[in-house]
Predict the 3D structure of the following.
Amino acid sequence: MNLALVSGCWLWLGGLALLAPARAVPAAEPDAKHTLDVTRLAFQRSILESSLAPLKKHLSELILLEKSRVEARDYAGAIEARDLRKRLEMELERLDKELLLLQTREQSIAASLLPDRIRLPIDAAVLKDIRREGGALTGWSKPGAAAEWKLGNLPPGGYEVILRYRCSPLEGGVLTVEETRFSLKAEVETTLKGPQEKNLGTLKITEGSGPLKITAQTVLKDNLMHLLSVELVPASK
C-alpha cells in the first residue's frame, strides 16, 4: 500500500473543516433560516460520514502492513506504518466527535421548528380490532386491540403524549403507547363531564419516522374508550 496515499487523506479531511457557503445568504425569515441551517448541517454530516469507510479501510491496511513489516524485521518500515496508524486513529476519533456535534446541532434546530402540538390524524391510523365511528376510535373490546401511526420524520427526543377521549362508567382499562424502543402505560379513567384531555407523560422517541402504537392492555367490560385525538408535544416547547 502507498503510505503517501494515506498521508494525503489528512489533507483532504482538513478541507472538510473549511466547508461553508460560497457566498453570503440573504436575510431570511427565522424558520427559513433554521431550515437552511439544518440542510447545511446534514450536508456536512453526509460528507464526513462518507469519509469513514475509506479511512477505516486504510486503517485495516496499516494494521496489516505494520504486522507484516515486523515479521519481515523491517523495523523502520514498521515504525513508519505504526505512526501513520496512530495518526489515522486520532483522526477517526476527531471525526466521530465532530459527527456527534453536528448531529446534536441538527436535531436541536429541527426540534425548534416543530409546532407546539403535533396531531396524529385519526383517519391515518392503522387499526387492529377497533373501528372508526363518529370521528373517534372505539370498539377496543379486548387486550391487544390497537391503533398505529407512522410518525412524520420527527427529530428524536422526548414528547408528551396527550389523548382526548370519552369513557363511560362501564368503560376503561389500561393502555400502552409505544415507539420502536420505549413505551408508556396509563389508566383510562371515566370522564364524567364529557370528553377530557389527559397527559400520559413523556415518551422518548428514538426513530422519528417509525411507528407509534396505542394498545389496550386491559379492558373493564366491552370498550376501553372513545379516542378523539392524539397529540404529541415536544418536551422542548
